[in-house]
């Protein structure tokens, strides 16, 4: 017999970001993953893909990622084999897209459009216990969900580059103050650092002791 709604465990929400050492999500002219993906990291990505996350993303990220996925599926021009496989694989993954400008039905397979308040929609998603949730890019959405206290895990993969001249999309701008309790760390390919935390949003600086 399946669990009743009252018996289901709440769904967990992971914020999952790749980041340069100086806090950027990407850099102009650099390849994907800053050209530093290696076999250990790629194998870990494959393992994560098997965990059946539902991805949450905003309209801008939807447009960008759908376009890249379609291009990779067509000819993979401009993408490495690993990038192409990762992008085309996203078509099969369930995705929830939060937007007031897009119109249903969305063209990217397995994408559901949500036009209402994203924070309230994710709060309801977590209550229903429908499975693990993860953000996909979407820095503005990520900030809103973190500020609302809805994020259970905050995970970074830090790439050993500083992109002071070419960096785009500063990740932490507009964030609240957040305390982070580390729950996991590992190194991939001798150079990429995974850091996973439980976040606690603060209303001000922590009291001195």
TrEMBL record:
Q: Where is the Bacterial bifunctional deaminase-reductase C-terminal domain?
A: 12-193
GO:BP terms for this protein? riboflavin biosynthetic process
What name has this protein been given in UniProt? Bifunctional deaminase-reductase domain protein
Residue ranges annotated as transmembrane are none
Task: Tell me which Pfam families the record gives.
Answer: RibD_C (PF01872)
Give the molecular function GO annotations: 5-amino-6-(5-phosphoribosylamino)uracil reductase activity
**Organism of this sequence:** Pseudarthrobacter chlorophenolicus (strain ATCC 700700 / DSM 12829 / CIP 107037 / JCM 12360 / KCTC 9906 / NCIMB 13794 / A6)
Reading the lineage from the top rank, the first entry is: Bacteria
Q: Which InterPro entries match?
A: DHFR-like_dom_sf (IPR024072), RibDG_C (IPR002734), Riboflavin_Biosynth_HTPR (IPR050765)
């Amino acid at each position: 017999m399946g669990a009743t709604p009252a018996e289901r465990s709440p769904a967990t929400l992971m914020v999952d970001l790749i980041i340069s050492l100086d806090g950027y999500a990407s850099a102009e002219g650099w390849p994907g993953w800053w050209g530093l993906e290696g076999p250990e990291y790629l194998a870990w990505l494959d393992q994560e893909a098997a965990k059946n996350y539902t991805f949450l993303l905003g309209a801008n990220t939807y447009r960008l990622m759908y376009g890249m996925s379609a291009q990779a599926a067509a000819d993979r021009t401009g993408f490495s084999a690993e990038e192409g496989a990762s992008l085309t694989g996203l078509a099969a993954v369930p995705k929830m897209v939060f937007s007031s400008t897009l119109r249903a039905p969305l063209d990217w397979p397995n994408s559901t459009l949500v036009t209402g308040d994203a924070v309230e929609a994710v709060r309801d998603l977590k209550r229903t216990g429908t499975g693990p949730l993860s953000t996909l890019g979407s820095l503005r959405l990520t900030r809103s969900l973190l500020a609302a206290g809805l994020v259970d895990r905050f995970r970074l993969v830090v790439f050993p580059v500083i992109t002071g001249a070419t960096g785009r999309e500063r990740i932490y701008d507009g964030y609240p103050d957040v305390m982070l309790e580390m729950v996991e760390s590992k190194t991939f390919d001798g150079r990429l650092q995974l850091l996973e935390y439980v976040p606690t949003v603060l209303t001000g600086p922590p009291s001195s002791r």
